[in-house]
Amino acid sequence: MASSNSASSVASNSGSPCAACKFLRRKCLPGCIFAPFFPPEEPHKFANVHKIFGASNVTKLLNELLPHQREDAVNSLAYEAEARIKDPVYGCVGAISVLQRQVQRLQKELDQANAELLRYACGEIGPTLTGLPVVGSVNIGGYGDGAMRASSIVRHLYEAQARAQVEGTSVTLPLAYNSTSCGAWRGGGGGSNSSANSNASLDHKEGGDSI
């Protein structure tokens, strides 16, 4: 605000009226409400504002505002007036509509890019999961009677992990379905043999204790 007051005092001391007073053909007195915002070197600024809003309306508006609010108000009036002169039908609304359409278009492109990235991330895992042999059934974690197809479980878990990586979150795969277990399913029996051996050793130990 100090710069605005200094501009007003310089305009008054130099004897050169502000753009508003010069346009209205009146003497620019000290403390002129237009002087801080319409310097003599910008006559078109006040001419546009006066053409659209009228000098009396602008004077009334500035008097109702606090001093620190006036500069922003004048800049807004000048922008709206210039936009209305360029586009008499829509004014600044036309520029806002153009920007909104650009935002919508860019948002749609961003959504498409994210969807393509998700498909690419899932496609990296898809070919390896497609070749998995379908094992009859496995008990989840070794407990319970419920059985599910191993390939279906692994596929859903890895697809969930891929989506989580794209979204910036994390999904931890269960121990029973890690890459080692997947390799055992692909190899056809490595994991089953280890499980059988573990069960056999456990039975042997229990048998020994009972003796």
Automatic annotation (TrEMBL):
Family to which this protein belongs: Belongs to the LOB domain-containing protein family.
PANTHER family on file: LOB DOMAIN-CONTAINING PROTEIN 4-RELATED (PTHR31301), PROTEIN LATERAL ORGAN BOUNDARIES (PTHR31301:SF91)
UniProt source species: Carex littledalei
Source organism phylogeny: Eukaryota, Viridiplantae, Streptophyta, Embryophyta, Tracheophyta
Keyword Lyase tagged: no
Residues covered by the LOB domain: 16-117
Protein name per Swiss-Prot or TrEMBL: Protein LATERAL ORGAN BOUNDARIES-like isoform X1
Coiled coil (residue ranges): 96-123
PROSITE patterns: LOB (PS50891)
Keywords, comma-separated and alphabetical: Coiled coil
Comp. bias regions, Basic and acidic residues: 202-211
Positions of region (Disordered): 188-211
